[in-house]
């Protein structure tokens, strides 16, 4: 009888944030594969699967690198950001990683051009968790404890990604580029829209909204902003609430300068919510070209937003395109096939 391939999954963030969710999804897909067994043992595992590639070089996993060297274990590692930003960092992994998981075509092309073995598999978002609801804005506001009178007849623009540095919550995380979001919103008539914020570490953006009189509603515990405290443990909302938020808003904005994802591109598309994004991470792979904008053309996006909701521009075809593109990849059987291909790439027959 053929022995099962034993896989040890490594990496977590311990706060049920993005890395923990990636780990949970990977465990689920691997558990459903015949010929694969999840292992709790480092010594008896055949494959070490890092859900966060930078941990491969972590001091605490030095023994894993020794096990690979002396017992010919294989290491698979997921690229979680745009590794093109720092080629020197990726070069440190030579001789350590047998296969990289590239979340986007751009990262995969970069790795291939530099002779790194890789396979393109985007981050997973479940269509069973993010989907369109048949609820009115009033009903959604009631569930989210938002005063409906504040949002009635307004364009609701969503942003649920962190924007602040963990080390200093009043400074922006450059990759997320919150200043571009502020510039776009500053070009809109204040009476026309409200920014809907959610998620932890929004300190910088809240500060800028206050300073520039940008109308916003924060969904969560807001006391942390005045106190300057990290809210990663209190404002990490449930998937159900985030799904409500995507259904409530009219538009989601991604203004990042550099990304591995973000998953918001997948989530908003599955909820059939209009989205505009800079051409980072997953965006060019999944979004209609109309949904993409260059950071230098932010004034054009302000115009597009107003045109979309004044009835001068149809959104339906773009929403449909984004939804169908994402759903085709996130469909369970299709994504399971992507996971199976990892083993083929490692020359392992299940």
Q: Walk across the major sheet and give the strand order.
A: 2-1-3-4-5-6
N-to-C CA distance: 12 Å
What is the top-level CATH class of the largest domain?
Alpha Beta
Main sheet record: 6 strands, parallel
Q: Name the overall outline.
A: globular
* pLDDT < 50 stretches: none
Q: What is the total number of structural domains? A: 2
| Share in β-strands | 5-15%
Rg on CA atoms, Å? 21 Å
How many E strands? 11
Considering the protein shown, what is the CATH homologous superfamily of the largest domain? Glycogen Phosphorylase B
Number of helices: 15
Assign the structural class, choosing from mainly alpha, mainly beta, alpha/beta, alpha+beta, or little secondary structure: alpha/beta
CATH architecture assignment of the largest domain:
3-Layer(aba) Sandwich
What kind of oligomer do you see?
single chain
- Average pLDDT for all residues: 92
Summarize the structure.
The chain is of the alpha/beta class.
